[in-house]
C-alpha cells in the first residue's frame, strides 16, 4: 500500500513538471522580435511604419474639422475647349527669286571698256600728242583743246598743261611708258583726293542712314536710285526705298520694281501727293523695319529755282524730324556737259550736296566732266553710271578711272 501511494505522488509530480515545460516553450515563441539593431533593407530605404490598429477600449481620435462645401461652391474643372479645327495651310505663292547684285568692289575695272569714247578722245588723244617728236606751241595748243573738248574745264586744263610742260622738259627724251606714267600721275592729281565713301551705315541709336537722291528729271535719277539700292544690298545693307517723286506714277512703279528685285520695300504715296510726306513715311518705315539705309528718290520736275528750293527744302526739313540726313547725292547726266554744271550750281544753293553721281559716262567722250564738276562744286564724285544694266553703277576710284582712260 505504501508503494502505491509513493507511485501516485511521483506520477503527479512528473505530470506537473511536464506541464510546466510546455507552457514556458509556448511563451518563448510569442515574444516580438527585437527591433533595435535590425539590419536596413538593401538600398537604405526605410518603409513607413504601418499604423497601429486601434485596440478596443482606446479613446477614438477627435474628428478633423473639414469645411463642408455646398454644391454651388464646388469649383468645377474648366470645360476643355473644343479642339481647334485644323485649317488647310494657305497655298504658298511662288515668290520670284531675288537678284544677287554683283559685288561693288572692282566694278569700275570690269566696266572700263564702257569708257571707250572718252578713252579714244581724252586718254589716247593726249598720249598721241605727247608722243610727238617735237612738242611745239601748236602741239601744246592741241593738248589744251583736247582737254577742253572733254569738258575738263578751263582752269584745270591750264593747270594740267603747265605741269605737263614743266615735267616733259625735265624728262628730256620720252618713252611711251614714261609719258603714260606721267600723264596718269597728273590726271589723278587733278582729280584730287577726297572722301568718296557713302554714309549709308545705320546710326548707333539704331536709326537708319538717310540718303536723298536729287537732280533734274531725265538725268537717270530713278534708275540711279534703283542701282544704288542694289549697290547697298550688295554691300550687305538692309534698304528701304522712298518714292518721293510723286509727279510721275511710273517713277514710283519703276523704283518699286528695282526694290522688288533685291527684296527692298518701297514706300510710295498717291500720284501728285506731297513728296515730303512720302519721304517722312519712308524714314518711319525704315526705323520700324530696322533698316540700315533709307534711299529717297526726289522729284526734279521743277522749272523755277524758287519752286525747287521750296520743295527740296521742305523734303529735307520734314525728313530731319527723324534726325539729320546723311547724304544728299546730286545726279548729273555726263552727256549734257556744261549744262549739267549749271544745274549743279542751282541744286548746290538749295541743299548741301555731299556727293555727285555722274551718269551716262558710257555714252560720252566728255569724261573730263568728272574733274570739272568736282572743282566747280567742291564736292566729290562718288559714283559713276556706265550703262543701263542693273549693276552698271560703280564707286568712283580716280586711279582706276584714269587707268581706264589712258590704258595700262
Ligand atoms: N547709257 C546709260 N543710260 C542711263 C544711265 N543711267 C540712266 N540711264 C538711262 O536714262 C534714262 C532716264 O533715266 P530715269 O532714271 O528714268 O531718269 P529720271 O531722272 O529719274 O527721270 P524722271 O523720273 O522722269 O524724273 C533711262 O532710259 C535710263 O536707262 C547710264 O549710266 N548709262
From TrEMBL:
The chain crosses the membrane at residues 6-25. It catalyses: GTP + H2O = GDP + phosphate + H(+). It is found in: Cell membrane; Cytoplasm. Coiled coil: none annotated. It comes from the Bacteria. It is an enzyme of class 3 (hydrolase). InterPro entries: AAA+_ATPase (IPR003593), P-loop_NTPase (IPR027417), Signal_recog_particl_SRP54_hlx (IPR013822), SR_rcpt_FtsY (IPR004390), SRP/SRP_N (IPR036225), SRP54_GTPase_dom (IPR000897), SRP54_N_sf (IPR042101). Its main location: membrane. HAMAP family: FtsY. Involved in targeting and insertion of nascent membrane proteins into the cytoplasmic membrane. Acts as a receptor for the complex formed by the signal recognition particle (SRP) and the ribosome-nascent chain (RNC). This is Signal recognition particle receptor FtsY.
